[in-house]
Design goal:
The complex is a heterodimer of chains A (about 150) and B (about 90).
Chain A (H helix, E strand, L loop, with lengths): L2 E7 L7 H8 L6 E8 L3 E2 L2 E10 L1 H19 L4 E12 L3 E9 L2 H18 L2 E7 L4 E3 L13
Helix pairs in contact in A: 2-3
Chain B lengths: L1 E5 L12 E5 L6 H15 L8 H4 L1 E3 L17 E5 L6
Parallel strand pairs in B: 1-4
Antiparallel strand pairs in B: 1-2, 3-4
Classes of the chains: A alpha+beta (about 150), B alpha+beta (about 90).
């Protein structure tokens, strides 16, 4: 099996880089690239305590599989890919997304990792609500999936 | 007719429930749903920064695919509202 994708509900478990490393491990790998996205303590001048991630589960998994398969077609058909994203509350320092890629060569490993991250941000129905130290919270703006020809 | 609108992201400000019932004239399409949502938001949620939501959101059918403004809604159908996304 060369592809693993999942939404990890934060009340049930955590995203694990050890699990990702084991999944992509192979003697055929000349390169392993791992991207770890984390919740940081500041955004736009506001002090952040955590982020709640919401997701349309079925559509997210469908998009993850499509994005990863396109990445393999584009860069390396034999790449091993691990992609997990959090759903629920993640405190500052917690992992929101982890992408791990095992490939024959470094260029492909880097490119697949970057490609998946950018496509997830533009295709996968996931939303962020930031929580601040003053007790306020805010859903963040994002990328519209409405067909462009309909926007007047 | 009525539909069940499943809520995601910022649209969850509209209710604590996962979905809300929306009353619509018979044979309504997504464009009509956008109009009705605009009215609901301007009447009840004018201070919630949701005024652009009806224009910027996409809508998924029960097949989890984006449907366009001409999509004819069916009575009792479940539709998901998809506000602008931003994971990662």
């Amino acid at each position: 099996m060369a592809l693993h994708t999942a939404l990890v509900k934060t009340e049930e478990g955590k995203i694990s880089s050890d699990k990702a490393k084991k999944f992509i491990a192979s003697e055929k790998n000349g390169a392993e690239s791992i991207f770890v996205g984390k919740v940081r303590n500041e955004n736009d001048g506001k002090k952040v305590t955590g982020v709640t991630y919401d997701a349309h589960d079925q559509a997210v998994i469908k998009s993850f599989e499509s994005i990863c398969n396109k990445a393999k077609d584009k860069f390396d058909k034999n790449a091993k890919i691990f992609l997990e994203h959090a759903k629920g509350y993640v405190p500052v320092g917690g992992i929101s997304i982890l992408i791990a890629v095992g490939s024959g060569h470094r260029d492909e490993a880097f490119k697949i990792c970057r490609y998946i991250l950018e496509e997830v941000k533009h295709q996968s129905p996931i939303w962020k609500k930031e929580h601040y130290t003053d007790g306020k919270e805010e859903w963040l703006p994002g990328h519209s999936l409405r067909p462009k020809k309909e926007v007047k | 007719m009525e539909i069940q609108l499943r809520l995601y992201g910022a649209s969850k400000i509209l209710s604590d429930k996962d979905a809300i019932k929306i009353e619509l004239p018979n044979n309504s399409n997504i464009e009509k749903l956008r109009d009705i949502l605009s009215k609901i938001i301007s009447e009840k949620y004018s201070k919630s920064n949701l005024e652009n939501l009806p224009k910027t959101a996409a809508f998924f059918s029960e097949k989890n695919e984006v449907v366009n403004d001409n999509y004819k809604l069916k009575d009792k159908e479940f539709i998901s509202i998809i506000p602008p996304i931003g994971g990662g």
